[in-house]
Amino acid sequence: MPNDYNVSRTLRRWYDTHRRALPWRDTRDPYRIWISEVILQQTRVAQGMDYYHRFLERFPDVRALADASEQDVLRLWQGLGYYSRARNLHAAARDVRDRFAGRFPTDYAAVRSLSGIGDYTAAAIVSFATGAPYAVVDGNVLRVIGRLFAIDTPTDTSAGRHLYNDLARSLLPPDQAGTHNQAIMEFGALQCVPRNPDCSVCPLVARCAAHAAGTPERFPVKQHRTKTVDRYFHYFYVTT
DNA sequence: ATCCTGTGCT
DNA sequence: AGCACAGGAT
Questions:
Q1: Does residue A41 approach strand C to less than 7 Å at its CB?
Q2: What is the pLDDT of residues A132-161, one digit of tens each?
């Protein structure tokens, strides 16, 4: 078990030279981080950019968002889809205004309690804004970790979620949480991509179990059978 | 553990 | 047409 943070060091070194310059990076304002994360949950960077700028211009801080009407928020959200997320955004802003005196919280439990913020978004906001040691686990992280350790347990099971969360935590250097989280996600987005990853230029190739097995694309393993399965039962009576 | 949502891929 | 995605909600 590599608890020496060498993987993290490699990821952060890679991140230094390969990271994209994005407007929501290098800000410590939890409000701005929050807006960017919610937009990015459903939109590619290229298209989310315009919405991000327009949103912040119109609602520069959480109080401006809270004091706006839901109609105004939805109008600015138009074209993004997932309108319940815009409603959650607005409701959460009012919640911050009322429960936290208009100051967006940076405490994990407080952030996590807001509408539309789950484990991933809470960890992202808190670690980016303050460096607090919460490991993000999104689709990119699942792929990087699934491949690094060639994990056969499906991601969408309780055992899988537990395992992935534990591994994500084990890779996280407590004093570099924000940078590490950004680095591992960017690495998944640009280098350890879902299809045809170019492992020949990967700085972790020597430590990657999936590459060693020759099947990086097999990971992460999923189960996701919402599909109805036909089951046939054979039963019989026993009479005396 | 299952459902929800709009987009884009196959 | 049907499914995968990606998080959150229930």
A1: yes
A2: 999 999 999 999 999 999 999 999 999 999
Strand B close to A228 by CB, under 7 A: no
Residues with Cβ within 8 Å of residue A185, at least 6 apart in sequence:
A136, A138, A140, A141
Residues 109-148 of chain A in contact with strand C via CB under 7 angstroms: 115-122, 138-140
The CATH number assigned to the domain with range A136-218 reads: 1.10.1670.10
Q: Is the CB of A119 under 7 A from strand B?
A: no
Rounded Cα distance between A229 and A87, Å, is 36
Instruction: Supply the residues of A annotated as catalytic.
Output: 37
Q: What is the pTM assigned to this prediction? A: 0.92
Identify the CATH number of the domain defined by range A7-130.
1.10.340.30
